[in-house]
Structure to design on (130 residues):
């Protein structure tokens, strides 16, 4: 048996308390820190999970603008705004407004969605962004 094999066999016979004491003595004698060298190759797992990183989902960049509700007295004003925003003809815009809740615009930026929402809310429509 080699010298190293003998040391290994001796280490196997140590109790846990003796092993802890051995580590402390080695740290003092050789001026090393066993805890830092033992963890250099270990992957550290976070104790708290960042919600953005946990799901792996990127921040949403495309939004749908939904016309939720059209009050009767405001219908014509809302219809005009919907036509100007969508480029739909009178009949198509009327069908869209009357079938609320309905998607007015799909896959638009958050800024555009907010701008359109404000225009529709100014004339009395109830709108949501999803």
């Amino acid at each position: 048996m080699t010298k190293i094999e003998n040391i290994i066999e001796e280490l196997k016979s140590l109790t846990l308390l003796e092993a802890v004491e051995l580590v402390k003595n080695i740290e003092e004698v050789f001026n090393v820190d066993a805890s830092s060298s033992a963890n250099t190759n270990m992957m550290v797992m976070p104790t708290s999970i960042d919600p953005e990183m946990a799901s792996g989902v990127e921040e949403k960049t495309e939004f749908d603008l939904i016309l939720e509700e059209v009050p009767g007295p405001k219908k014509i004003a809302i219809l005009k705004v919907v036509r100007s925003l969508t480029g739909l003809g009178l009949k198509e815009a009327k069908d869209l407004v009357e079938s609320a809740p309905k998607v007015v615009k799909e896959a638009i930026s958050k800024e555009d969605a907010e701008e359109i929402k404000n225009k529709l809310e100014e004339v009395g429509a109830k709108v949501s962004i999803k």
Notes: The domain at 63-129 is CATH 3.30.1390.10 (Ribosomal Protein L30; Chain: A,). The chain has a mean pLDDT of 81. The chain has two domains: 3-37, 63-129.
